Amino acid sequence: DEAKSLVVRGTSPLSLGDVDGTGRLAIVVVARIASTERQYQHRPDKHDVLEHRLYAIDAVTGDDLEHFPIILNKGADVSTSSLIPQPLLIDLHEDQRHWLNQIHGLSDEDISTIRQINKRAAEDFSASSQPRPHGGAGRGVHIVQPLGSTLYIIEGATACSQTVDVGDTIPSMVQADDVHGTGGLDLVVTTSRGEILTLESDTVSYHPLNVWNAGVTRAPGSSNAQAHGFSSTQGIFVHPMSRVWRDILGVYIPITFEIFDRRPNIANEANLQVYEVEVRAGMSAKRTIFYRSYNATGIYTERVQIPFGPGYFSLTVLLRTTHGIVYEDTFHIGFN
Hints:
The protein is mostly beta strands and 336 residues long. The chain has helices spanning 98-102, 108-127, 240-243, and strands at residues 4-11, 15-17, 26-37, 48-58, 70-74, 88-90, 142-147, 150-155, 161-165, 175-177, 184-190, 196-205, 234-238, 247-248, 253-261, 275-281, 288-294, 298-304, 311-320, 326-335.
């Protein structure tokens, strides 16, 4: 109808991540779209809500990624609540080994290969009924988006989707971590009745760069909530040999961690190759037990001492960049 126009009735907070696995950040956002007559564009009471659209936009060019936007629901299924939860970007593929190479950068040949993998994965999904790997056969991350009582889980590279209805409205962003300590990744879902649900997986392995446990972006205290960890151009994580739960006897605790930085041209900008690392017994800056500034990325092992006496501790390793952005990783130990 030419007399009608489409208006945006609200959007979710933005999320940043490497949606298709090609090494480029994308902006992911959900928009509530309504239809109205042109003279009523500024009259919300005259709007007919049509659908929710999921957008994934190249952060460099502003173009929609392939397969996007996606219509999540429409017509009678559209929720008209005022808030749209932020999308969660998380990798739910069973094989995530390629990320540990990818955080150090991708060549043009690597990107071309990944695009071929994604194209083949999308074609195979449409043409074959054979069992597929957990999470799909593409690269990149999944988008987990709650709308009403429905949880949409979408593979970013292929737009293949799955839905789960939890029976009650999901008012907030889904979180992800190894909640049960099994070495697998769990999705944490809250409902409007106050229920907390965990969707467990014994197939998707835990990695500290593949979690989201700090609330929504820019929330107070969410210093690690800039982008999905594997997608970040910089970061820090503690290696498995140090993060495994154990009781430590002795004076010093060895911690092995890795700093990575794949910003364009960083090799030629020595003034930006400054990485300030802190270790805290908890989160408070008053409980800092180690500090050192590094001028190169790589794997480091440092010995730290906890001066607060015997007990169980959450040790937080923080990296502060020259731009003031903070990345962090937390693990738990018993000391003496």
